[in-house]
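Task card 7
Instruction: Convert sequence to C-alpha cells.
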Amino acid sequence: MKFQHWLGFAALLISGLLLWSLRDVLIHLFAGVVLAMALCTLVGALRERWTLPRPLALLVCLLGLASVVAIAVAVILPPFFSQFQQLLIQLPTAARELQQIITGWISSASMLVYGQNTQPAITPSDLSNGLSALPSGSALASGVSGSLKGLLGLAGNLGNGLVQLLFVFAVTLMVSIQPMAYREVGIQLVPSFYRRRARTILLQCGDALSSWMIGVLISSFCVAVLAGIGLTLLGVKLVVANALLAGLLNVIPNVGPTLSTVFPMSVALVDAPWKALAVLVLYVVIQNVESYVITPSVMQHQVNLLPGLTLTAQFIFTVLFGPLGLLMALPLAVVLQVLIREIVIHDLLDPWKKRRVNA
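Output:
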C-alpha cells in the first residue's frame, strides 16, 4: 500500500473513533433531525393546501403545536396523572390478589393430586408462609419506585437533561427553517461524483421518515381509542390513563405494547380475575388489528421492516445509545434500511453482479 492509502486508512480509523466517542451527541442530533422532518412534513402539507411563504407556514405550525400542547396540559394531563397515581397505588393490592389466586390454584391442584385427607409435601399454607416471607406488595412497589428514581438519576441531573432537550429543540428549529441548506452541507461531505446520487438517497430517507411518523401517529391514536372503548365496555377503571399509556407506548414496538398491558391488568385483577384475562385478550386483539389492519392501511408507502429486524435494531441501539436509542430505534432502522438498499445493494452489489455476468 502506498503512503496515501495508509493515510486514508488512518483518517478513516480516526473518524470512526471520533464518531464513537460522540455517539451520545449524534443520537441527540438524529432525534432533532427526526423532529425536524415531522415539522417539515406539517409545513409541506400546509403549503400545499394554502400558498404560504415557508417562514409563515412554519410559524403557523409552531403556534398550532403549542396550542395543542397547552390544551393537552390543561385538559388531558391532570386526569391522566391522577389516574396514573391511582394505578401505582393499586399495584400492591393487585399483587396480593395475584398471590391469593396462585395459592388457591395450588390448593386445588393439591386436593386433586394428593386427596382431601392426605398431607402433601408442600401445602398451600407453606407456600403462603413462604410468600409472606418475601417482600410485601407495598415494599415491592416501593422498591420498584426507588429503582425507577435511581434510573432517572443515572440518566443525569435535571440541568443536564434540560440542556439535552434544548439542544434537540434547537436542532429541530434550525433544520426546519432551512432544511435544503443543511441537506446541501451534508452532501458536500460526499465525493463530487456521487453527490447527485446522494441527494436522491437523502430525499428517499426523508420520505421514508415522513411516512413512518405519520403512520405511527395514526396507529397510536387508533390503539388509544380502541383501548379506551374496550376498557370501558369491560368496566375497567382508570380508562383515560390506560388508554393514553397504550397509545404512547405503541410508539415503541414489541416492548411498548407488552408494557401497556401491565397496568390495566393490575386494575382489572383488583375487581375480578376474569377481567384481567379479558384485558389481556383485548390488548392481544388490538395489537393484531393494529399490525394487520391499521398499519398496512396507513403506511402503504412506508419502508417495511421485518419484526426480527425491528427487535434486533431495538436491542443494538439500546445497548449503544441507552434509553434514547430505544426510542430512536425505528427511525434509525428506517434510515439504515434505505441507505443499505440504495448504496450497498443498488450501487455496489448490483453493478458487481452485472460485471460478473458479462464476464
